[in-house]
Design a protein that fits this description.
This protein is mainly alpha-helical.
Length: about 250
Amino acid sequence: ALFAASAAAFTPSSFNGQAVQGRVATKARMSMETSEDLAVLAKKLNPIVGFFDPLGLSNQNFWDTTSEETIGFLRESEVKHGRIAMFAFVGYLVHANGIAFPWAMSLDGTPFPKVSSAPEAWDAISDAGKLQIFLFIGFLEFYREVACETHYMKGGKIGEFPAFDPSVIPGGALNLYDPFGISSKNSDEKKEAGLIKEINNGRLAMLGMFGFLSEAKVEGAVPLLKGVIPHYDGDFMAPLSTSILPF
């Protein structure tokens, strides 16, 4: 059940289900992006490179959907992974400098690990802590899929995270999409410019993380980071091998 929640965002039923279909409106369909729209967006993101799709993903039909729905999935995936990469990049820098919260990490008084790299910090987290992280991520994925008025594969807003309903979540919570209500006050032009910056920063953060991880496994793989990023003995592709799944 834990991993099913996380995987729900990537299953056909999550965007072909009756609940999602019932929310689709004509206006939403009209706002769905095409490959031509991607070409226009690409010029805004990088006027020099422009539209770059060597694998032809924008012309594919994932899970027997339309190309417009597939583009919606790809656009949402890029924004989501870009945001995660920006968090990861900052986190890597924080751990590389030995910065940790001063309070206890767990109820038994175990402190937050002070290590030289983020992967080592992950390995130092207890099994219970890792399970809590997966459960929380699974909840966010599930809530994103079911709580939006219009699904991102049906013309919904790319990158939007639905507001938390205080009647459902006791005590309420900060809305992740715009926690302090700043974006909602901006003009449409400023919002568009902000989205362009977010995509570019997300792409740069993904490349930055690839650089960190490559240098951590193969010394000298990134000449500028040689001697800066310490070696990591673990396996990035098997993040649970040192604890929950010891094999």
